[in-house]
Amino acid sequence: MLTGFSGFLGCFLLYAGTMRFAMNAARGRRLFVAALVCLVWSIRGWGLQYPWTYPYVLAAALAVAGWWFSSGGAVSKRPQA
Predict the structure, then answer these.
(1) CA–CA dist 7, 17 (Å, integer)
(2) For residue 52, what is the DSSP state?
(3) Secondary structure class of 76 (helix, strand, coil)
(4) Separation in Å, CA 54 to CA 25, 40, 44
(5) What would the pLDDT profile of 10-47 be if each residue is shown by its tens digit?
(6) Model pLDDT, residue 79
(7) pTM here?
(8) Local structure of 78: helix, strand or coil
(9) For residue 6, what are the contacts with CB-CB under 8 A and spacing of at least 6?
(10) How far apart are CA 50 and CA 68, in angstroms?
(11) At 45, is the secondary structure helix, strand, or coil?
């Protein structure tokens, strides 16, 4: 039951982080990290032998991508000429 709740909470945090990132690109970094932790916890609880775990793996990958984009990883750091 706790595994299912952490998966639900992780998906909710991923949704909230995405909405926060959509409003302001510099926001939502902590929500993405919290979503990643909850989703990985649920994946470890179920294991990869069940087919319903794979959407949570994809959601965890999206949380990592959201964290990377919100932390400025996609922005070029080269000086403008």
Answers:
(1) 15
(2) G
(3) coil
(4) 28, 11, 12
(5) 999 999 999 998 888 777 888 999 999 999 998 888 88
(6) 62
(7) 0.79
(8) coil
(9) 38, 39, 41, 42, 45
(10) 28
(11) helix
